Amino acid sequence: MKDLFGNALLDYQNGNYTEDIITSTNISDEDALPLPYLFRGFKDMPILEQKVLKLAKGFVLDVGCGAGNHSLYLQEKGLKVKAIDISRGAIKVAKQRGVLYTEEKNILDETEAFDTILLLMNGTGIFQELSQVSKYLSHLKSLLKPNGQILIDSSDIKYMYEDEDGGLWQDVNANYYGELDYFLSYKGEKELPMKWLYLDFNMLLTVCTSVGLKCELILEGEHFDYLARLSL
Questions:
Q1: Distances from the Cα of 157 to the Cα of 31, 49, 168, 224, angstroms
Q2: Rounded distance, CA 160 to CA 225, Å?
Q3: Which pLDDT value is given to residue 175?
Q4: Residue 70 phi/psi, 5° resolution?
Q5: Of the chain's two ends, which shows fewer C-beta atoms within 10 Å, N or C?
Q6: Report field, pTM of the whole predicted structure over 0.90
Q7: DSSP notation for 3-17
Q8: Range with lowest mean pLDDT among 26-30, 33-37, 88-92, 97-101
Q9: What integer pLDDT is reported at residue 167 of this predicted model?
Q10: Helix, coil or strand: residue 167
Q11: Is pLDDT of 172 > 80?
Q12: Which residues, in sequence order, are CB contacts of 147 under 8 Å at separation 6+?
């Protein structure tokens, strides 16, 4: 990983904002990801994220913390938060912005126990592929304290496969429709392609049941997105 995402966050943090990140997938065209949005405060967050921050309790793990927006808000509320990300640049920015407890780390390498685990901005993305979901959820389950919770969001992207008549053009021989190839570029440089997973709620519920987690639908957003709470 070249960490172009981290480089972009560092540029914005250090006053060198000149252009946005460009993203695309194997089923969607290029789109701009505005850097200011990655530094948003509570009032500019989607309803689902605001709901998550109201539900968070105890010792919180912020997985894929990015610039640290959620961690900072929860710290200000008096909660203890650990923020992790695989992006070195993101962790540098989160530290600079005042997140007290940060670590450059993959969630699968985490070993502490938490009351709340956050996976936001399509939190299922880090699972990469449907075949990996049970491994990730089993590990997340092992990090929960008694009465702990995992707050995770995603979207059902089936709508992206609909034609004008409402029919689906999915290849029946293809992988699960939420498995995407994700591409990112910044200032003309391309990041290494990565796998990214959008998981519909029923599929999340099915896998949770298989690994012994309860799965509750908390809130649905305006564009096929949803928030779920997983617990022991």
A1: 16, 19, 12, 7
A2: 13
A3: 85
A4: -70, -40
A5: N
A6: yes
A7: -HHHHHHHHHHTT--
A8: 26-30
A9: 59
A10: coil
A11: no
A12: 115, 231, 232
Is 220 exposed, middle or buried, given 0-12, 13-18 or 19+ CB atoms closer than 10 A?
Answer: middle
The residue written with tokens 């999340």 in the block is 204
Residue 78: both structure tokens together: 């008096």
Amino acid at position 8, single letter = A
Structure tokens at 40: 């948003």
Q: Alpha-carbon distance 100 to 81, whole Å?
A: 8
Residue 163 has pLDDT above 80, yes or no: no
Q: For 91-103, give one letter per residue: b (16+ CB within 10 A) or e.
A: bbbbeebebebbe
Report the C-alpha gap between 157 and 150 in whole angstroms.
Answer: 22
pLDDT at 4: 98
> CA torsion sign, 123 to 214 to 107 to 56?
positive
**In this structure, what token pair is assigned to residue 46?**
């989607």
Q: Which residues pair with 197 in a beta bridge?
A: 179
Euclidean distance between CA atoms 103 and 1, whole angstroms: 17
* Of 130, 125, 131, nearest in space to 107 by CA: 125
User: C-alpha angle with apex 115: 109 to 120, nearest 5 degrees?
Assistant: 65
Q: Which stretch of DSSP H or E encloses residue 62?
A: strand 60-63
Q: Are 41 and 227 in contact (CB under 8 A)?
A: no
Helix, strand, or coil (residue 45) = coil
